[in-house]
């Protein structure tokens, strides 16, 4: 009994020593695999208009899935496809984890000619209630009550308006794919050009 106890104790001590000697990765440090991303997406994933959208605040699952889609050609983009191909091994997971952990800065409500921008009630209604007469669910049904996203659904709040618009248009013309059961394509194709503009601006300025 004493011998067994001694063996267990030595094993625990040995394991503790090994864990203590292992190098600790500092949190918040950019992995080398993410360094190519910063020229378009910013060092903290804040996005650089018009080069690249905001990555901060997106879930690691969403970022990882989109990078795989670029690698597999499911999602087409002349810049992102070769960039994604540079990520080998656990590179995708490192990039996804780093940018998803970055803090999202609150966007400033724009002021035009001394007045804050306001949005039509129809836009907010479409975002939060949808339009079931056209088979349009509310945007927040999938993207969360505050449009913060989660899982495979990206954050919309604070994202660049130009990026949201180009993605909705991409869903409409079929150049973006990979959505489950064609859900986003179905939604986007029911939006008018004016609604695309209004929703993009609304979510970009949502605090």
TrEMBL record:
Entry keyword annotation includes Heme: yes
Post-translational modification: Binds 2 heme c groups covalently per subunit.
Residues annotated as domain Cytochrome c: 15-103, 109-207
Residues given in the record as heme c 1 binding sites: 37, 40-41, 80
The keyword Iron appears for this protein: yes
Domain of life of the organism encoding this protein: Bacteria
Annotated GO CC locations: periplasmic space
Residues engaged in binding heme c 2: 139, 142-143, 184
PROSITE patterns: CYTC
Residues annotated as signal peptide: 1-19
Coiled coil residues, start to end: none
Entry's transmembrane regions: none
Keywords from the named record: Heme, Iron, Metal-binding, Signal
One protein family per Pfam: Cytochrom_C
InterPro entries xrefs: Cyt_c-like_dom, Cyt_c-like_dom_sf, Cytochrome_c4-like, Cytochrome_c_Oxidase_Subunit
GO molecular function terms noted in the UniProt entry: electron transfer activity; heme binding; iron ion binding
Protein name: Cytochrome c4
């Amino acid at each position: 009994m004493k011998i067994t106890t001694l063996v267990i104790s030595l094993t625990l001590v040995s394991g503790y020593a090994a864990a203590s000697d292992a190098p600790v990765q500092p949190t918040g440090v950019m992995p080398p695999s993410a360094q190519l991303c910063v020229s378009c997406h910013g060092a903290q994933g804040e996005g650089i208009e018009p080069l690249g959208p905001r990555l901060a605040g997106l879930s690691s699952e969403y970022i990882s899935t989109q990078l795989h889609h670029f690698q597999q050609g499911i999602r087409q983009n002349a810049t992102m496809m070769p960039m994604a191909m540079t990520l080998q091994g656990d590179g995708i997971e490192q990039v996804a984890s780093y940018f998803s952990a970055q803090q999202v800065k609150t966007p400033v409500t724009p002021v035009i000619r001394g007045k804050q921008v306001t949005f039509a009630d129809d836009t907010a209604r479409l975002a939060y209630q949808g339009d079931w007469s056209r088979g349009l669910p509310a945007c927040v049904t999938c993207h969360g009550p505050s449009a913060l996203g989660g899982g495979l659904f990206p954050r919309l709040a604070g994202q660049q308006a130009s990026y949201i618009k180009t993605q909705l248009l991409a869903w409409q013309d079929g150049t973006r794919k990979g959505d489950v059961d064609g859900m986003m394509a179905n939604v986007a194709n029911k939006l008018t050009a004016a609604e695309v503009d209004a929703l993009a601006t609304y979510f970009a300025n949502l605090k």
